Amino acid sequence: MNIAKAIRSTLSGCAVRLVCLLPEGSNVRAKTEFAYHWLCFVYRHHRLPGRRDSGFNAFLFSIKTDGTLANPLRRRITDKEFGKQYVDATVGGGWTVDTLAVLKTPDEVSDFSAVAFPLVVKPTHSSGRVLVVHSEHEYRLMTARLHRWLTHDYFLQTMEHNYVGLEKKIIVEPYLNASLSLEGSIHCRAGRVKIISMIDRFDTTKRRTSLNRQWQPLHVALGQPYSQLEIERPVFLDALIEKTEAISSAFSYLRVDFYASADRFVFGELTNLPGGGLARFSSKDGERRFSHTFFG
Q: pTM for this one?
């Protein structure tokens, strides 16, 4: 992290903590939170949010500020353990990445011993924190960081209300091998698949492409550089859309993540607010084209 970014992060964290000192549920707290998110949006996107339907990021801003994220179901699926349970309950078992362990205390973290490696280790109550662990020795070197994760409060970093009160846990999953070389994110509006973003998991540049539900390219990416990946229409696309729409049917918006090979897929996490509503598009007219498909 460069110095300027570190300073911005520190100032933002201080601002959030000051806001959280205000009485919860009070009118002044609500207005101050809205002002904070409004300023973050303007700083990041260099424009006002606008109407809910004026663009995809304006749509996410409304979700972030209108109380939607405080919905108990949204809070539940924000938890990575319970999100997978929700998928299982909705479309049946066997469609998510396996869970090897859920660790709730520092002692459980320290005492954990894996049968096989590599592993993926993440906090269930946060975002953007993930470790790939290749050996028992490497795991032992990381335990101090995992202990810190058990005290981390993501709400105090972002003021996104779906993170309020989540139990602090560490989830352990198997590392998916190279056969599942693709990673996808499906943007759903009112229970309908609108846009599918794809990325090669092993491309260190993280370039991605976006397609509509007919698998036609939109020539835009959100939050990462754009690259028109040459990916044939998957044989499982219809099944993927059907199951994703079942998962997202209870939500005005939901992003459903998955991993795929040429002939199969498994679901990953469920995301209420991608990039905190602050991710930029890969080109100046990218949001217009993305939003046209999303709202169409």
A: 0.93
